[in-house]
Amino acid sequence: MQRPEKHRIRSAFDRAAASYDAAAVLQRAVCARLLALRPEASSATPHILDAGCGTGYGARLLRERWPQARISAADFAASMVARTAADGIDCVLADIEALPFRPACFDGYWSSLTVQWCDNRRVLAEAARVLKPNGWLALSTLGEDTYRELRSAFAGIDRHQHTLDFSAADQLADAAHAARLQQVSLHRETITLHYPDLRSLLGAVKAIGANALGPGRRSGMMGKAAWAALSSAYEQHRTAAGLPASYDVILLSGHK
Ligand SMILES: C[S@@+](CC[C@H](N)C(=O)[O-])C[C@H]1O[C@@H](n2cnc3c(N)ncnc32)[C@H](O)[C@@H]1O
């Protein structure tokens, strides 16, 4: 699996912090589903980590759900950390593949729509390391059917890579088992968002910073003819609701 270089991912998210919240429709919908999966907190004052917190939407949800909890957050983009910290959440600048926390210090580990940018195995091994025995994990990511319309529209245009190389759901489950997590359960759901046109669809992806791509990416701007061909290929997918973008959402829960 090829991943974009980390500095590219980090810079795209760093640039997107200001536009993120207005465009994060999918992210809010996925956080709501992830929260619905959570059992009651295992202790009266649980310590919960939001790993890859972005602007802190998930951390705020956790704070509302468990007002007595201590919430910590981590993200590797400095402007995202600044936004989360501005809300009074204890937030550190860190890579979730190598967390700066001692072993067994969290009752809960939450990570929403971040792991698709990471090495699953490293993230889940780190989650297991920082969780207390019997601590819970709730994680969402995107599976391989994500952006299927975009890939199909590009198929006739060029051979470059235009979307992330998303993991298969069973690879994620394997990574959770390799990290020795227990009671691992996977849920999968397609969420489809609609846009008036291709420009607004691609603009929304960029506004949340999810536009860093892998080594096979196209460099430079697209020519007029290629853009027209792409728009017309994407139009084949139009429905009454607009141009669809499908997200293959995977929710994973488990315990240490
Ligand atoms: C799509 S946003 C999701 C943010 C938030 N969880 C939400 O649901 O709104 C992905 C976030 O993960 C962060 N991120 C990606 N890879 C990371 C890594 N290896 N370590 C820490 N943060 C990472 C990005 O900086 C970005 O803020």
From TrEMBL:
| Entry keywords, A to Z | Biotin biosynthesis, Methyltransferase, S-adenosyl-L-methionine, Transferase
What InterPro entries has UniProt attached to this entry? BioC, Malonyl-ACP_OMT, Methyltransf_11, SAM-dependent_MTases_sf
Q: What class of enzyme is it?
A: transferase
Keyword check for Transferase, yes or no: yes
Reaction catalysed? Answer: malonyl-[ACP] + S-adenosyl-L-methionine = malonyl-[ACP] methyl ester + S-adenosyl-L-homocysteine
Q: Which domain of life is it from?
A: Bacteria
Q: What is its EC number?
A: 2.1.1.197
Q: From which source organism is this entry?
A: Candidatus Proximibacter danicus
> What SUPFAM superfamilies does the annotation carry?
S-adenosyl-L-methionine-dependent methyltransferases (SSF53335)
* Lineage of origin: Bacteria, Pseudomonadati, Pseudomonadota, Betaproteobacteria, Candidatus Proximibacter
Protein name, please? Answer: Malonyl-[acyl-carrier protein] O-methyltransferase
- Methyltransferase type domain residues: 49-138
To which protein family does this belong? Belongs to the methyltransferase superfamily.
The gene for this chain is: bioC
Give the Gene Ontology MF terms in alphabetical order: carboxyl-O-methyltransferase activity; malonyl-CoA methyltransferase activity; S-adenosylmethionine-dependent methyltransferase activity
The job of this chain, per UniProt, is described as: Converts the free carboxyl group of a malonyl-thioester to its methyl ester by transfer of a methyl group from S-adenosyl-L-methionine (SAM). It allows to synthesize pimeloyl-ACP via the fatty acid synthetic pathway.
Q: Which residues form the signal peptide?
A: none
Q: What does the record give as its pathway?
A: Cofactor biosynthesis; biotin biosynthesis
